[in-house]
Design a protein that fits this description.
By secondary structure, the protein is an all-alpha fold. The protein has 2 domains: 85 residues, Orthogonal Bundle (Rna Polymerase Sigma Factor, Chain: A); 119 residues, Butyryl-CoA Dehydrogenase, subunit A, domain 3 (Up-down Bundle), CATH 1.20.140. Helices cover 65% and strands 0% of the residues. It contains 10 helices and no strands.
Amino acid sequence: MSRVRVVNEPELLERLRARDEQAFATLVREWSPSMLRLVRTYVSDRAAAEEVVQEAWLGVLQGIDRFEGRSSLKTWVYRILVNRAMTKGARESRSVPFAALAADEASSGEPAVDPSRFTREGAWASPPRRWQDQPELALRSVETLSAVRAAIGTLPPMQRSVITMRDLDGFDAQETRNALEISETNQRVLLHRARAKVRTALEQHFGEADEAVHA
């Protein structure tokens, strides 16, 4: 099966609107893993998450003729996906519109980093560790990825979505805020807070690993 040239969007859209099964099947194969990863930040059960992804693709197939191209195809597909995830999510907070949820998380008074890590003058008392200076730790890629995913799983809903799209799936800032329908400011604040929390979790993970090695 030939690979769909996703970058050539006009041609791809033409093929999808013509109900080209090969184009649609290839797109599903290429995008579904990242779609499932995003849904899993809202739906813990894998089977339920896979159902959300299937429903999203059905929505794409049914709505492709109405797609006006005001955003990229990928942004439009992910917007359908996150809307399905909202209605399927088990947590009560999922019934809140993403924009309102993002604004609430971004405007909360929580610090991105534990205040105890700063001196009274505002300097670092306990600075972040530089992973590039510890190559033996960087080699633990599988363990590190597991730690990252575990840390992301503890984040508030919108922080989970933003960091998953930006750092795991490679979306840029504009694609992320368009898909989630949030403001540029909220996207930036949510990503900053999410990254800070994940970094703190990794520091703890690597610290525990060091202790185990030297025990």
